[in-house]
Amino acid sequence: MTCREVRNELMECARGAEPRSAVRVHVAECAACARKLESQRALTAALRTVAAEPIPPAEELSGRVMAELDRSARVTRMRVSGWLAAGGLAAAAALLLLVSPEKPPAPVAQDASQFITIPYTVPLSPEERATVVRMTIPVTALLAAGFQMPAADPTTTVQADVLVSQDGRARAIRPVSIPNSD
Amino acid sequence: MSWPPDREGFTAVYQEHYAAVFRFALYMTGDRIEAGELTQDVFVWLIHHAGEFDARKGNLAAFLGGVARKFLHRRQRNERRWLPLHESAVAHGDFAAGIERDQEAGQLRSAIAALPERYREIVVLCDLQGHSYDEAAAIVGCAVGTVRSRLHRARELLAAKMLRRREGQKCL
Prior knowledge:
Chain A is an alpha+beta fold and 182 residues long. Chain A contains six helices and five strands. Chain A folds into two domains: 3-51, no CATH class; 59-181, no CATH class.
C-alpha cells in the first residue's frame, strides 16, 4: 500500500476501527504514517476529554421551557373549555328549537369577549379596528391553526364568527354552532 | 410514550436530550450562556412543533440536532447584523479564554472554535457527540461521503495545530 492509500484509513483507525493487516504492516515500516497515526490517536483522546466535560444540570436550563410548557397547557385547557361551552350553548339552542312554537333567531354572540384568540397570533389591541365575518370552517382548518377540538371527525364543519383585523388576518374566533357533518 | 408527549413525557424527553443539544450549541458557539439560551430555544420550539418529528425519518436526537443547527444559523445571522466584522467565531470564545484546568483540552476547544463552520459542525457531531456518519449527514443535509471527507480534513487541521502547540511548548 502507498502512504496516500494508508492515510485515508488512518482516521478510522484512530477513531477506534480495527486496522487492516496491510495498513498495520505499512505503518510498522513507514515512520511518517506512524507519526500521523499517533497524532490522530492523541487527537481522539483529547476530543474524548473535551466531550466528557461537565455541563449544567437540566434544572438550570429548563426554566423558560417549563414555563412555556405550562403556559401552553393553560391556553389549551381554556380553548377546550371554550369549545365545550360553545357546544353547550348550541345544544341549549337546539333544545329551544324543539320546545318553542316559534323559530328563534340564529344564535349571535352578544359579547366580544367570547372571541377566542387564534393560537400563535397576536391578540387585537383595544385601539385596533376589526371586522366580524361569519364563516363555515372545516374542523381540519381549526386543528391546523392549533385549536384542540373535541370533535373527532375531521370531515365536520363549524359555523363561527371570525374577527378579521385591518391587515386581513384572522385574529380570533367565536363559535356559533357545534361541529356538524357535511 | 405517545407523541407529542404530555408534560411528564416532555420532561422526560428534555432530561434525555438537553445535554446533547447543549453540547452541540456549546462547541459551536464557544459560549456557555449562548448555548443555554439556544438549548431552551430548541425545546420551546419543540413544545409547539412536536408534530413535525417523524420517527420514520430518523431518531429524535438527530431531529433535535437539525433544529439546533437552524437556531444556531438564525442567531448567527442576527448577530452579524449588529457585530463588527472582527468579532468572528474565533474571537468569540470567552469560554475558551477562561480559566482552563486541562490545558490541552482548552487548546483543543480553541482550535475547534477556530475551524471553519462546515468542518466544526462535523467534528462536533461525529467526534464530540458520537453521531454516526449517516446521522450527521441527515442533520447537516449533505452526503455521507461529504461528512467523511470534512471530518478527515477537520481532524488533520486539529492534529496539525495540536502538534505545533506541543512542539512550541517543548522549545520553551
